[in-house]
Amino acid sequence: MVEKQVNRGLYIEYKAGGPGDMPDGFYELYVNPRQQDNFAGFFEFKYQSGWYRPVFTRAVHRWFRDFYGQATGHRHDIYHLVLYTRGSTSVLLNDHTCTVKAKTLYIASPQEFHSFTPSSAYTRHVEYLALFLNIYDRQRHHLRLPFCQLLSHLAEKDVPSIEFPVELPEPTFQLVHDDFIDILHLLLRNPEHKLAVTTAFLKLVDHLTEFLTCSQEGAILPEHVRAIQEYLLRHLDRPVSVAELSDLVYLTPNHLVRSFREHMGCGPIQWHIAQRLEKAKHYLIASSWRISKIAEETGFSSVYYFSRMFRQKVGLSPSEYRHQHGPG
Prior knowledge:
Blueprint: E1 2-7, E2 10-15, E3 27-33, E4 45-47, E5 50-68, E6 79-86, E7 88-93, E8 96-101, E9 104-108, E10 114-115, E11 122-137, H1 147-155, E12 166-167, H2 170-189, H3 194-216, H4 223-234, H5 242-249, H6 253-264, H7 268-286, H8 291-297, H9 303-314, H10 318-325
Antiparallel strand pairs: 1-2, 2-3, 3-5, 4-5, 5-11, 6-9, 6-11, 7-8, 7-10, 9-12
C-alpha cells in the first residue's frame, strides 16, 4: 500500500509494507519540496560571508527483514545522518566497508563516497532511521563542510574530527534516537512548523556535540556512573530511589550521590527527573497522548505534580510546550 499526498507544499510518501515486508508501524517517508518557495529551510546561519539554510529533504524509518544483493556507492552534496537501531550488516563509507549494528551512528558528509543501505550479500532484520540534510546559501551554493566542522560552527565550540561510523553509549543513543524520532514525526505531521523543527535539530546538534567532545577528551565515566545512567534510562516510567541505586552498584548512598554529582553536575535523582522530562517533551511533540497519559508514562504520580515539575524545569506548562513546539 502506498499513499501519496501534497502536504502544505511538500510531497510525502508513506509506504506500509515495502522491502522485506515491513511490519505495521514501520514506514518510509520522503519529504521532497514541490515548490521553490518551500525549499527555504527552517532557519539560517552565517558561515564566512554567506548565509546558509539547512533543509531536511528526506526522512526514512526503514526495516529490512531480508536483503540480498550488493549496494552501490555514490557521492552528492547532502549530509546523511543514519542511526541503526536493530541488526547488523556492512555498509560503505569512503574507501572502506564498515560493520554497523544497533546503536551505531553513520554520518556521510557531502562528496564522501557512501552507501548506508546493507551491502553484505545477506542481511537479516536491519532497522535504521535516516535524515537527509541539504545546506545551501541564498544563491543555491552548497555547503560542503565535513560534519564535525559543521557541528563546531553550529554549536560555537570546538568539536574534534572523528571517523564514522561510531557506536553510541546507551545514554547518548537514547537521546539521539529521540531526536531523530522527533524530527521525523515533525516532518511527517507538519513540515512547515519551522520553530519546532529548528528546536529538534539544534537539540540533536547539542547531543552530538557533547558526545563527540567528551569522547575526544577522554571523559570516560566510571563504570558505576555509567551503570546508574543506563539503569535510570531503562526506568523512565517510574521514580527510582537512591537506596535502589545503592544496591545496584554496591556503594553507600552518600558515596554514590557524591560521586555521581562530581561527574554529572547533579545528583542521580535530579538527573533522572531531567531525563523523564526530556522523554515527556518527546511525547508532547511526537504523540497525541493526553497530558495525563504522558505523566503516567514518565512516572509522575499526578498530572499536577508532572505539570509543576515541567514548568519548574522548562519554563512552560506541558500544554504550552506542545502548543509552541509541537506539530500542531
